[in-house]
Specification:
Radius of gyration: 13 Å
Bound molecules: zinc ion
Strand content: 5-15%
Largest sheet: 2 strands, antiparallel
Strand order of the largest sheet: 1-2
Number of helices: 2
């Protein structure tokens, strides 16, 4: 029986931005390590 993606990611620890420590709840499938705020700063 397969777990749904939601159940799977629920079991993972929350990702935190390594720069500002903000918890990112919807980045589970992402390779992006930083929160939107820090990414936005980067793109300046
Ligand atoms: Zn951040």
């Amino acid at each position: 029986m397969l777990l749904s993606p939601v159940e799977f990611f629920r079991n993972l620890p929350k990702k935190e931005c390594p720069k500002c420590g903000q918890v990112m709840e919807e980045q589970a499938e992402s390779y992006i390590m930083e929160c939107e705020g820090c990414l936005a700063k980067k793109v300046e």
